[in-house]
Specification:
alpha/beta; disordered N terminus
């Protein structure tokens, strides 16, 4: 609220949400669900009806689903949609959002512009090079898979693995090149990610680790050792960065990765401006660290906190147990928590087998868990992490024993 509005104690009447992905849509919906009666305007850069992103690397890509639009009746909720309207800047002192269609005044602004894929240097504009972030990206890749092209995937992270899975299902020859020495190098410790390398070969995909791309040419990818890989198409999946370049000059404080620095109520450094989802980091008292979480569940949970704080009746603190999942090479992979500060790792089951889990402990308390084909471990582990329960490491290591029975208190 502006200073004058705050002094008067009146609620805001105009909430503008910049970004029409999961975080933006859920913020608008949560405002209505929590009783906000003012105007809600949802602004999206893409012309499409707001849609969910996870199906893009699965059902939409393979043509088994025609779309992934959110099942939300925006009209009945009184949410104004402005699509194909790009956010260009914010002027907090004037309480205005600048867009391609002109300035939009607000009482409260929510930044929910998500993240954008990192491009491969030198590959921009080369025919046959693709990213996979938007519905249009997926639509451009569908005929590539249908024609069963030879495909090179650059990056063996989550999105690279999911795309490689879909491409193999479509019958494409797939080579995945990864600069690091293992898949998921930026997400998981070496000993945990190592068993996942075999999944590529099992699916018929070739994984080349320690392989850096020197250049991309029409029809091929050239590695720094001179190896030339045939490529009818190249899909780049080397990470994502917060989509916040448009905030330059706004005075809104950004972090080292370009993310909006939000506080524990998801407020930014600018008055009456919140940030949620992939574009923002937040301080976690649970983990004693600032977290930047680029996953679907964060974009689902954060909006409820934002809505509660906009309404302002009871201050709401955002400190979730991060959660995400990935479907790759016939396996369902789930992760909950944050393992960076763990001091002990406990394995449950054989990582060479189809189902196993890894638990991370800090002072015997469960702080994170990775489950491969063991959804019950994940469900129980997530609750144990939230409760801060102390665990018996020996009991925890028995894969036949339910996690909830391995507690010390």
């Amino acid at each position: 609220m502006s200073e004058q509005t705050a002094q008067q104690g009146t609620p805001p009447r105009r909430v503008v949400v910049a970004g029409a992905g999961m975080a933006g849509v859920q913020t608008a919906v949560a405002l209505r669900e929590q009783g906000f009666t003012g105007t809600v305007t949802l602004i999206g850069a893409e012309p499409h009806q707001p849609y969910d992103r996870p199906p893009l690397s699965k059902a939409v890509l393979l043509g088994t689903a025609e779309g992934s639009a959110f099942d939300v009746d925006f009209e009945s909720l009184g949410i104004e949609l402005r699509l194909g309207c790009e956010a260009l800047g914010v002027r907090p002192a004037a309480h205005e959002l600048d867009t391609g269609a002109g300035p939009v005044p607000y009482d409260v602004l929510v930044l929910a512009t998500g993240a954008e894929p990192v491009t491969l240097p030198g590959a921009e504009g080369v025919p046959g090079v693709h990213l996979l972030r938007t519905l249009d990206d997926a639509e451009r890749l569908r005929p590539v898979l249908a024609r069963q092209h030879d495909i090179v995937v650059v990056g063996a992270g989550w999105i690279g693995a999911e795309f490689a899975t879909a491409a193999r299902e479509a019958g494409c020859a797939v080579t995945v090149v990864e600069a690091a020495g293992r898949p998921l190098a930026g997400a998981l410790p070496a000993e945990v990610a190592a068993p996942m390398a075999a999944w590529y070969a099992d699916s018929g995909a070739e994984l080349r680790t320690g392989a850096r791309v020197e250049r991309v040419e029409p029809g091929s990818v050239v590695l720094d050792d001179g190896t030339r890989l045939p490529a009818d198409a190249v899909v780049v999946g080397i990470g994502a960065r917060p989509a916040t370049a448009w905030l330059a000059g706004s005075g809104i404080e950004l972090g080292a990765h370009g993310e909006v620095l939000a506080d524990d109520r998801l407020r930014t450094s600018a008055e009456d401006v919140y940030a949620v989802g992939d574009c923002a980091s937040f301080p976690s008292a649970r983990y004693g660290a600032r977290l930047l979480v680029h996953h679907w569940d964060n974009a689902l949970q954060g909006p409820r906190t934002v809505a509660a704080n906009i309404l302002g009746e009871i201050p709401a603190v955002y400190d979730p147990v991060p959660y995400f999942w990935s479907e790759q090479f016939g396996r369902f992979v789930q992760y909950a928590g944050h393992h960076a500060a763990a001091d002990r790792t406990v394995w449950r089951g054989d990582p060479e087998g189809p189902a196993w889990s890894v638990c991370w402990l800090r002072e015997d308390r469960l702080v994170a868990l990775l489950a491969v084909g063991r959804p019950r471990d994940l469900a129980q582990g997530r609750r144990l992490i939230e409760a801060g329960r102390r665990m018996d490491p020996e009991a925890l290591a028995d894969p036949a024993r339910p996690l909830k029975t391995a507690t010390l208190d």
